[in-house]
Amino acid sequence: MDIATVPGKGSKFTLRIPLTLALMDGMLVQVGETDTSCPCSIRECIRPRREDITVTMDGQEIVRVRDD
Question: For the whole model, what pTM was predicted?
């Protein structure tokens, strides 16, 4: 990873990955405005409804899936 910072302007992060990882299957995930890829060892993908999300007293978000 390379990080280039210009005070008052911002930072640029460059991530270089080995070709063997670049060729792996993955699932593209978007969180806010950020896109990332997760390896395809994913067993299940869900899109929680707002009513399934609870915020704990310390501000952490948890989601209920199949009553667990």
Answer: 0.38
CA pair distance 13, 8, nearest whole angstrom: 16
Express as a percent the part of the chain with pLDDT over 70: 90
Helix or strand holding residue 33 (H, E) = none
Amino acid at the residue 10: G
Structure tokens, 29: 């995930």
Q: How far is residue 16's CA from residue 20's CA, in Å, rounded to a whole number?
A: 12
For CA atoms 56, 57, 59, 60, give the dihedral sign: negative
Report, as an integer, the average pLDDT of 31-55.
82
